[in-house]
Amino acid sequence: xxxxxxxxxxxxxxxxxxxxxxxxxxxxxxxxxxxxxxxxxxxxxxxxxxxxxxxxxxxxxxxxxxxxxxxxxxxxxxxxxxxxxxxxxxxxxxxxxxxxxxxxxxxxxxxxxxxxxxxxxxxxxxxxxxxxxxxxxxxxxxxxxxxxxxxxxxxxxxxxxxxxxxxxxxxxxxxxxxxxxxxxxxxxxxxxxxxxxxxxxxxxxxxxxxxxxxxxxxxxxxxxxxxxxxxxxxxxxxxxxxxxxxxxxxxxxxxxxxxxxxxxxxxxxxxxxxxxxxxxxxxxxxxxxxxxxxxxxxxxxxxxxxxxxxxxxxxxxxxxxxxxxxxxxxxxxxxxxxxxxxxxxxxxxxxxxxxxxxxxxxxxxxxxxxxxxxxxxxxxxxxxxxxxxxxxxxxxxxxxxxxxxxxxxxxxxxxxxxxxxxxxxxxxxxxxxxxxxxxxxxxxxxxxxxxxxxxxxxxxxxxxxxxxxxxxxxxxxxxxxxxxxxxxxxxxxxxxxxxxxxxxxxxxxxxxxxxxxxxxxxxxxxxxxxxxxxxxxxxxxxxxxxxxxxxxxxxxxxxxxxxxxxxxxxxxxxxxxxxxxxxxxxxxxxxxxxxxxxxxxxxxxxxxxxxxxxxxxxxxxxxxxxxxxxxxxxxxxxxxxxxxxxxxxxxxxxxxxxxxxxxxxxxxxxxxxxxxxxxxxxxxxxxxxxxxxxxxxxxxx
Length: 701
What we know:
9-stranded parallel beta sheet; 19 helices; 32 strands; 21% strand
């Protein structure tokens, strides 16, 4: 199981592709890296056709000078397996390995991950090249770890062999077609099967029960791929070398808490909008498949990465300059690279590695800026990276064993995400179903908490069973569960027990409505929680415009607070209504309700909160935050955590103006050694990112 990294300190570096450079000066590159404080580079993961230029002909010597040069300079190496980008000769020899995006429709070659990675032919050649690389280099003293594959789960192949495996998977899961008919409700529209051969292909499927099992099966293919490569690498790895893969959390096949199960440490690739995308407030709200915008989104990525294994993580790729198309050219303002790196460290990161060292001169990613520009001459970005490298050296081993604090635990449901991609409850602004509905709902709560200064951790629904309920309450006394549409009885009972034993449970829309197969439950919603919450609902409504909300009973809703996009029409039986909608023709008034239950409390938020309402929820849940204790303004974040008995605080000013804070206890600047007295104003320069530790026994976070 992925766990705490085995090394000490924070690793710092970049992906390094000597093989991509038209005029390689290896010693110069490595000297510049050493001068910039690099302690790690990642190599080899993208170039199968370089390792094996023709079938069965291996060229392995080209990497040796890189590894030897890194070793001489004390730079560790993460060696990647090149299995995500197949060479043209393999495409020509085995065209049948191409992934089918729909049944019978092969994906064209010319991108990457175009193949069905479960294909036996693919696996044969992938294993062969991987073994040859490992035989040559696994024992090299510079190699500190391995990355298997790269951003797995890009495709959901529909190949015949994949479909037949799906049928076999269902046979093992259900036993008989009669049971499948019953569990899936295939009496509907005459879908009842008489034989397993009757099962239709996924392309035209409209049945939600089929969809959720198809997505679980597809996630299992990605898990299998990473598990297979991990076992292969373990045959060669030393005990002091770690194994990971780099996750992109938007990948269609990925169920992140499951795919990391056999790895030593979680790693992933956060890309984000720079410049005004790292302002508070954030001017740009757009989110693409692979990059996000907003300081809150950067912190959320860190919390997602920590959640995968409930352990520290590595950043295998992140921006050095602009990334993407030439029309999206937003290099960082001075100071933003340091801000972003410290933010990722504050939420549990143990490595910061840029993609990549030298900006490419050709190919799809020509304008994905590296640490060095196209000229290869060190410039502003290199100087800022080198200054950050010195800071990370100064941090030393302070973050060994570090765990970020949390005021609130959020629960993430991959199954609900998949269900909402298939049948979204929300609409796009331009009309039509929003297949990012789950992210929209989850992000609304996360951002509201973040804007209120609340520190959040994330746990997957499966992980709720990993610790006793009493311990869950003790570690996380407030738990927010946005839109838990798919949940089995055990998860719902755990939530009820959490409140009964003293936790404050906050539920969002559609919670407790479906079971583990996305079947609507034949009981009042939220199922198993109606009496604990003191409310129920049988009707829900799309909101085509925001519906204003006012607060009462100590719940302060700022002007502009509203519900948006969706409303569960709550029937209140035994709960306090603390936020009400404006008058509407449905007659629904209860927007937010709360009720004491056992030693705890259940609160229900019956809409997707807009920014103002979500922030009000956060402020009501956690009236005392680290940001308030530091007397920080809204453009300043304060993130705290602990390593052993030492308390640390990351303080950042996400604006182009100066700001001040006042520490609530005596603190020491980790990098300068300067002492700051409790309550004394402390000036923050524009884009400042500072790290403090308590200089006395008094808590400072």
